[in-house]
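User: My collaborator sent over this chain with a note saying "see what the structure looks like." That's all I know about it. Can you take a look?
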Amino acid sequence: MSDRATIQSIGRLVPQGARVLDLGCGDGALLDHLQRERGCSGYGIELADENVLACVKRGVNVIQLNLDQGLSIFDDDSFDVVLQIDTLQHLRNAETMLRETARVGKLGIVAFPNFAHWPNRLSIVRGRMPVTKRLPYQWYDTPNIRVGTFKDFEVLATKNRLTILDAFGLQDGHERRFLPNMTASTAVFKFERG
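Assistant: Without extra context I'll predict from the sequence alone. Here is the result:
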């Protein structure tokens, strides 16, 4: 997820000058934006060689690490904000990594494809898994090992004693605060330990 409007929407959730850890940072576009526009510092965590190289070229500090191994290299409250933008749905240990996000950061921000978006629901009613701009893969070749909805994350946050500070949907770069579970292809949450 690297379109400008999405980066700006998520960027507004990060306090000015924050120390940031971006889990699954991809090519580093979001962290680069936060450094330039919000005066932030920090690190990206990325596994893919080509993305690590892209981060280095952007001047983004990056650590090559498999997130399924956890965040034991970081102490509690090491960062002001920990980001998981389009990462949670790829992890085998999603709930553990969510708890680690809350442990390592004072604030957490997650964004993931919202499976309850109305076009996805329509595909299911027709008997097919959705293939959309936001979920562009067939069921048999998707890198997403789990799917979730806006409401599912609220339940998971409550189960893990996380306090949701802000929540909205994103659709084509626009924030959706009215019926986001139905009207947005991306769910976005800002939270802290409860």
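A starting point for your reply to your collaborator: The two ends are 28 Å apart (CA to CA).
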